[in-house]
Amino acid sequence: MKITHVLRGVEWQPSTSKHILLYKAFGWNPPNFGHLPLLINKDGTKLSKRQNDITINSYRLKGIYPEALLNFVISCGGGFVQNNEKNVYIRPLSELVSKFDINLINSNSCQVPLDKLGYFNQAQLKIELNTDLGRKRTTEKLKNIVQNTFAKDKSVELDLSEKHLNKILKWSINRITNINELIHENYKFIWLKPSELAIKSMDYDIDIVIKLKNLLINIDDFTIDNLGTVLKEFSKSNNIVYSNLMKMLRNLISGLKVSKFIIGLFIFDYFNYLYILICSKVQVLVK
């Protein structure tokens, strides 16, 4: 039959003697059988293809890269010299082929920590963004995701230029595990303006907001370092805890009560619009 090796799950091991007898009964030379440890869930049950959330198509829809999934599975089952580095390392297929050692496959069942798959996907996303082709592919994919998500909302003015999308990806790379997350609730402020209702529902000190507006009108240097200094001086002179001031700015800009990403917005020049945004919020608040 020209089959030299059979690699299968360890649960087939008790049946191996019967299979060898069948080969001999037909006058065939039996192949070499190798029985691999099971991949199991955290609760100890066998990882099964019948679990809908672990199908290839499911991971594809979630934005998981094939390279990330392959390296993740390999990290569970062995076959390679262990990488002791803390950072996740994505091995290219050529390296996987050349360095695989069957003697290093784990002999015991292996738990699959699905919560760590995101780290592998983030590592592959960084690789993609470090190449011209990968970056172009990623920005185009993000553009399609955003368009499909917000296309029906005619009030949304989207900046989907390659330059702008690249800045967003650069800012978010250490915060997301795949680009689909950029349309989730905590990131919608990137694409959508907060509603008047959202603004009014939050607890602002309108006098402080107006003071900040009047301060920003005189600032010409909207850079990260300068704005950081200005905002710290503003918080100090007005007896406001700096973290509370930044929280207020997060709320004003995003309309979200929980948002951790205000400083990162400097990276793609969001603060060039800070004065305009705050002016518009003041107009809403004083209505």
UniProtKB/TrEMBL annotation:
Residues 160-259 form the Aminoacyl-tRNA synthetase class I anticodon-binding domain. The keyword Hydrolase does not apply. The chain crosses the membrane at residues 258-278. Keywords: Aminoacyl-tRNA synthetase, ATP-binding, Ligase, Membrane, Nucleotide-binding, Protein biosynthesis, Transmembrane, Transmembrane helix. GO terms for cellular component: mitochondrion. One of its GO terms (molecular function) is glutamate-tRNA ligase activity. Residues 1-81 form the Glutamyl/glutaminyl-tRNA synthetase class Ib catalytic domain. InterPro entries: aa-tRNA-synth_I_cd-bd, aa_tRNA-synth_I_cd-bd_sf, Glu/Gln-tRNA-synth_Ib_cat-dom, GluQ/Sye, Rossmann-like_a/b/a_fold. GO terms for biological process: glutamyl-tRNA aminoacylation. It holds the Pfam family tRNA-synt_1c. The keyword Cytoplasm does not apply. Belongs to the class-I aminoacyl-tRNA synthetase family. Glutamate--tRNA ligase type 1 subfamily. This is Putative glutamate--tRNA ligase.
